[in-house]
Amino acid sequence: MSYERELIPLARLRLNHENDRHGPLPSEPECIQWLLTHHRTHMINLAKNIAEHGLSPIESILVLPAGEEAAGDYAVWEGNRRVAALKLLDDPNRCHDTKDKQRFSDIRNKAKVTIPQEVECTVAPSIEEAERLIELRHQGPQDGIGTVPWDAKQKSRHQQRLGKRGRYAFSQQVLDAITDKLDGELREKTQVKDFPISTLDRILNSTYARDFLGLSTEGGAPLRLLEEKETLKGLSKILRDIAEGMPVRKVYNNDLIRDYLGTFDKKDVPDSRKRLPDPTPLSTHGKATPGLAKRGHGRALAHERKKLIPPSVSYAIPDNRVNRIYHELRRLDVDTFRNAVAVLFRVFMELSVELYLEKHGIKFNAHDKLAQKTSRVVEDLKTQGWLDRQGSKGISSAISSKHNPHSVDTFHAYIHNRRFQPTPTDLNTAWDNLQPFFDALFGHLA
């Protein structure tokens, strides 16, 4: 079948008045208004994404010639929302509502890429072929010939592969790490597409539940604090209950989770006396990671590391400047550029704290000291159950003590005291002590 790819001016693209999303409408303005009325937030988010990244090169706009009455124009068969977003960015006056006009004007004015006036489109050879492609795209898997959407576990696993923290990242890591240790029947039940990982995630987000199971979130990846068979006792019981239909309302909050765990038979309760001398990665069965110095966290020791941030650490930071500083800190050699790393580390900490406060609507004054702002973040993370007592030790010490390499006073001295010299070991040690705080902070910015 012959397809043509053409660069078509935006002005020559016409929205499909009979798009199946909304049904027959009399005109293009009516199509745009319907999208803004029924999918306003989605349209605004789509426009923002286009203004930041441009159109996705793997998502083609499918068109057909509009006909003799509109010679040279093309009807959009697939991509109505994207073309509508482009038209709204091109001319926000297409919005009926004044607030919408202002929103799209603001997005256009802050665009990081040029809003395209020409769009690469795929021209279908016939209506029949266009309809066949539409059906493949929107009618579900169809025994494998159509698009197969990812379930929650697959989405989370994709986020992890990219070094991002998906919504269920920690729970998916736990599940992946222990799958081969489960009995055959339970393993099968946890691998089905509709296994409710959100229920598991609700339980594992509880500090009480993690302590009960002997799990730690320090470092971002799951660590085991107990002998393997003890942790598996509790996890197997939880997974079996979820697989057999336990409703999420039974574990909806910390009190309910505590009550639920209190019903476990003795054989399902991990023995807290069988504690390991050091935290062990759940996925490595207690063996040291090849190529790394032997240490509970599976990373090189502070005095051996060449970069401030260990390569195993990966954050998805939704702020352009903070994200750039983070990546610069990942690249700079801490020995060669110790002063640059020290100053950037201090800036990174303050901007990260302010980003969290803003994202969660926690009020602070621009003139507040770093220790005051950090204390507010720590308090909120603890209240939400996202930072436990062990994880907060480093940041609490940084706020309260003046005599350690990661204290706020030390960070100030890196910038303001020309006689105070940062050392690579002190900087790396400071990161190691503060990382649980950063893990919790960046893990909850969505």
- Individual helix count: 18
Subunit organisation of the chains: single chain
End-to-end separation in angstroms reads: 44 Å
The coarse silhouette is: globular
Structural class from helices and strands? alpha/beta
The profile of the biggest β sheet is: 5 strands, mixed
User: How much of the sequence is in beta strands?
Assistant: 5-15%
Give me the side-by-side strand order of the main sheet.
Answer: 1-5-3-4-2
| Pattern of helices and strands | EEHHEEHHEHHHHHHEEHHEHHHHHH
Number of strands: 8
- Total discrete domains: 3
Mean pLDDT: 81
From the alpha carbons, calculate the radius of gyration and give it in angstroms. Answer: 27 Å
Name the poorly predicted regions: 158-165, 284-299
Task: Classify the helix fraction into a percent range.
Answer: 40-55%
